[in-house]
Design goal:
With 389 residues, the chain is α+β, with helices and mostly antiparallel strands. The protein is built from 15 helices and ten strands. The chain folds into three domains: 52 residues, Molybdopterin biosynthesis moea protein, domain 2 (Alpha-Beta Complex), CATH 3.90.105; 222 residues, Hypothetical protein af1432, CATH 1.10.3210; 93 residues, no CATH class. Strand 8 and strand 9 form a beta hairpin. Helix 3 crosses helix 4, helix 3 crosses helix 5 and helix 4 crosses helix 10.
Length: 389
C-alpha cells in the first residue's frame, strides 16, 4: 500500500481504503479502480491524497471492528467541526461531553490492541481528523496506564480541542507542498496559542483541560525553539497528549511530507525519551498493532523478510522469516544478532495482512493455536515478489 498525492493519481489505480460521505455512507469501496470522474471527485472533495494498492497487492482483510473504526472517524469528524464552530462563535461545546463518552466507551476500555488506521484527509477536515485521532490515542493510552476516569475524561477532551486555533493559519501556509520553514512553523504556533482564548469560558468548570493543553504546548515549543525545558513538571495528561499528538502528526497524510510508517514513528518516540515520556510510549505500543504477523519488512542490513511472531518485550525485534534463504531469525536474541533491527515495513500504512494460522503451526511449529500465527502461501509468494521489485 502506498500513499499517492491527489495530483499524482491515475486512472486504473486501486483504492486501498473506502471513501465515505459525511453521513458515513459508502461512496467508493476498497479495490475500486479510479476513473477520471473519480479523480475529479477527489479533487472536488479537496482530499490530500489516497492510499493505493500496488499492482500485485491483494486487498487486505478487514474486520468488523476496522469497518466501525473508519466509519466512526468519518462521522465524528463532522461533529468536531460543528463543535469547533460553536466554541468559536458561541463559547459553547454542547456535544463534546457526549463525544468524549463515546470515544472512551469505544476505545478507552479495550482489552486488545487496535488496528489504528489513518483516515483520508482534506484541507478542510485535516485538523478535525487529527483532533479525533489524538483523542482516540489518548483514550487507548490512558486506559493502558490505568489513569483514573476523571483524568482520562480531561485528557480526551483536551485532545479534541487542542488545535482549535490552527483554523486561523494563513492559507498560503496551508497549501504549501514543499515543506514548512521555521517562519511558517512560528506562524502556526502563534495561531495555535491564540486559539486557547476560545477555551476560557467553555471549560471554566474544568480548568484542568486547558491547563494540560497549555502544558503540552509550552513544553513542545521549548524544544522547537531550541531551549528545551527538561525540568518541566507535566501532568500525566500533558505527557499523553504530547505523545499522541506527535504519533498522529507524523503518520498521517499531509501536504508537506510523505507519511511516516508506524514502526518509524514508534522508533522516533523511543529514541527521544527526553521529549516523549517512555512510559507513555510503551503504553502506546501496547495499545495498537504495529508489527503483526504477515508484515513484510526491511532490516537494517538491507535484507527483507516476513514477520512471524511479535516480541512482547520489544516490538522492534520480532521473529522474522528471511526471504533470502528461508531462515527464521529471532531479533530478540541480541547475543546472536547484535544490533540487527527492523528498518521499516515494506508496505506502510496498513498492517491488516492475510494470514493462515494453521499453516503457521504446521509449517513453522513455532506458535500455539491461540497465538498470532501464520502466513498464507500466496502471501509468501507476493512478499517474495515484493522483495525483488
Amino acid at each position: 500500500m502506498i500513499f499517492v498525492k491527489h495530483d499524482k493519481l491515475k486512472e486504473g489505480m486501486r483504492l486501498a481504503k473506502p471513501i465515505y460521505d459525511k453521513k458515513g455512507v459508502l461512496l467508493y469501496e476498497r479495490d475500486s479502480k479510479l476513473t477520471r470522474q473519480g479523480i475529479e471527485s477527489v479533487h472536488n472533495f479537496g482530499i490530500i491524497g489516497l492510499y493505493i494498492l500496488e499492482p500485485a497487492e491483494p486487498v487486505p482483510p478487514i474486520t468488523e471492528e476496522d469497518v466501525e473504526f473508519e466509519k466512526f472517524q468519518m462521522v465524528s469528524t463532522f461533529t468536531i467541526q460543528d463543535e469547533w464552530k460553536s466554541i468559536r462563535e458561541k463559547g459553547q461545546a454542547p456535544a463534546t461531553p457526549t463525544l468524549v463518552s463515546q470515544i472512551i466507551k469505544r476505545y478507552g476500555r479495550l482489552d486488545h490492541k487496535l488496528n489504528f488506521v489513518q483516515s483520508l484527509r482534506s484541507q478542510e477536515d485535516k485538523y478535525y481528523k487529527h483532533a479525533l485521532n489524538v483523542a482516540i490515542l489518548c483514550a487507548l493510552i490512558t486506559h493502558k496506564m490505568n489513569v483514573k476516569l476523571s483524568e482520562q475524561n480531561d485528557t480526551v477532551t483536551a485532545a479534541l480541542v487542542h488545535d482549535i486555533g490552527k483554523l486561523d493559519t494563513p492559507q498560503e501556509i496551508e497549501i504549501k507542498t514543499e515543506g514548512l520553514s521555521d517562519a511558517d512553523n512560528e506562524y502556526i504556533s502563534k495561531y495555535e496559542a491564540l486559539g486557547f482564548q476560545f477555551l476560557d469560558n467553555v471549560f471554566d468548570g474544568t480548568p484542568s483541560v486547558k491547563r494540560l493543553i497549555m502544558q503540552a504546548f509550552r513544553y513542545r515549543e521549548s524544544f522547537r525553539k531550541g531551549n528545551p525545558d527538561l525540568n518541566a513538571k507535566l501532568s500525566i495528561g500533558a505527557k499523553i497528549l504530547t505523545v499522541a499528538d506527535k504519533f498522529d502528526s507524523i503518520t498521517a497524510m499531509n501536504e508537506h511530507a510523505e507519511p511516516t510508517s508506524e514502526i518509524s514513528a514508534i522508533r522516533y518516540l523511543m529514541d527521544n525519551p527526553e521529549i516523549y515520556d517512555s512510559t507513555v510510549t510503551d503504553a502506546l505500543v501496547d495499545s495498537i498493532n504495529i508489527l503483526v504477523p504477515g508484515c513484510t519488512v526491511e532490516l537494517t542490513n538491507g535484507d527483507k523478510g516476513l514477520v512471524i511472531t511479535e516480541n512482547p518485550r520489544n516490538v522492534l525485534k520480532p521473529v522474522v522469516l528471511m526471504f533470502s534463504d528461508n531462515s527464521i531469525i529471532d531479533l530478540g536474541q541480541e547475543l546472536i544478532y547484535g544490533n540487527l533491527d527492523i528498518k521499516d515495513v515494506m508496505k506502510t500504512m496498513d498492517n491488516r495482512v492475510a494470514i493462515d494460522r494453521s499453516a503457521m503451526e504446521s509449517g513453522f511449529g513455532m506458535v500455539k493455536a491461540d497465538e498470532p500465527a501464520a502466513i498464507d502461501p500466496d502471501m509468501l509468494d507476493f512478499a517474495a515478489e515484493s522483495s525483488n521489485a
